[in-house]
């Protein structure tokens, strides 16, 4: 479970809207902090900033992409993979089939690097208009560029070091119905009939060292992503992420609570 940079409440106090111990959402202040920390702690070769971390998505295109995958059942997950082209972030996408198991979901295909086949790769990228299929070999180029060029400063006191493929984020898995669909529903009244789109952006929060179902991780800053909406107003695009007090989950918030793989590559849990 992520550890907030500035926890909004005691860790043992349930969320007032969900009753859960995790937040699943970022206020504007938390979002700005997490974006700033990504810029500070993730650099190309320890110096250059990573470009174009934001990607604009049409919600209807993302929804149709998820719905078009056959035989997924009533519970689905969305895996976001991390790649690099030149100095620019490349996000890969894959739909997962979730099966309720205990307090979470087991999912197929597994994203653990030790599992066979092409499961550990994105199936599509978004070109600004459509989701385009990519082969495992094509995605491997983006992934290898990311692993060899991006460096991380895991702690405030530490220096930049190369990414470790057995430790650092390969993909982030989000529950589709419980988080992505809920994010859209939570902002429905703010979107109304306006022109709108979704944004995916890179963020970084401090995480503890944990053992998972596919390896272990050291503590420190890790590469995550979050989603939020923007609506077209008279004078430009308005970001639907604020510090306002809200009752409805995800209203005026960014959704960032996904499981990072590694170490959680076979089973999603809160």
Write structural notes for this entry.
- The protein is of the alpha+beta class and 270 residues long.
- The protein has one domain.
- 19% of the residues lie in helices and 33% in strands.
- The protein contains five helices and 17 strands.
- The chain has helices at residues 28-41, 59-67, 136-149, 176-186, 188-191, and strands at 42-44, 55-57, 76-85, 88-101, 104-108, 124-126, 131-133, 150-152, 161-162, 171-175, 196-207, 210-211, 216-217, 220-233, 236-239, 259-261, 267-268.
- The strands form four sheets. Strands 3, 4, 5, 6, 7, 10, 16 and 17 form an eight-stranded antiparallel sheet that branches. A four-stranded antiparallel sheet has the order 2-11-14-15. It has a three-stranded antiparallel sheet with strand order 1-8-9.
- Strand 3 (76-85) and strand 4 form a beta hairpin.
- It is globular.
- It starts with 27 loop residues before the first helix and ends with a strand.
- The model is unreliable at 1-22 (pLDDT under 50).
Task: Write a compact overview of the structure shown.
This protein has 270 residues and is of the alpha+beta class. It has 5 helices and 17 strands.
């Amino acid at each position: 479970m992520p550890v907030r940079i500035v926890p909004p409440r005691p860790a043992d106090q349930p969320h007032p809207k969900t009753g859960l111990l995790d937040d699943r959402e970022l206020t504007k202040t938390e979002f700005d902090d997490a974006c700033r920390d990504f810029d500070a702690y993730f650099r190309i070769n320890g110096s250059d900033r990573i470009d174009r971390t934001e990607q604009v998505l049409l919600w209807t295109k993302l929804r149709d992409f998820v719905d078009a995958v056959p035989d997924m059942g009533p519970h689905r997950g969305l895996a976001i993979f991390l790649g690099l082209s030149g100095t620019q972030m490349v996000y890969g996408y894959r739909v997962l089939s979730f099966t309720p198991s205990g307090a979470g979901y087991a999912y197929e295909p597994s994203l653990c690097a030790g599992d066979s086949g092409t499961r550990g790769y994105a199936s599509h990228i978004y070109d600004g208009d459509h989701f385009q299929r990519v082969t495992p070999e094509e995605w491997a180029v983006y992934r290898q560029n990311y692993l060899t060029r991006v460096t991380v400063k895991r702690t405030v006191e530490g220096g930049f070091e190369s990414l470790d493929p057995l430790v650092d984020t390969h993909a982030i898995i989000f529950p589709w119905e419980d988080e992505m669909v809920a994010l859209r529903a939570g902002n429905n009244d703010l979107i109304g009939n306006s022109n709108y789109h979704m944004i995916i952006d890179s963020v970084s929060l401090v995480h503890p060292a944990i053992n998972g179902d596919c390896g272990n991780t050291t503590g420190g800053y890790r590469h995550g992503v979050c989603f939020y909406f923007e609506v077209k107003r008279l004078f430009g695009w308005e970001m639907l992420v604020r510090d306002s007090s809200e009752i409805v989950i995800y209203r005026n918030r960014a959704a960032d609570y996904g499981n990072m793989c590694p170490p959680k590559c076979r089973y999603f849990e809160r």
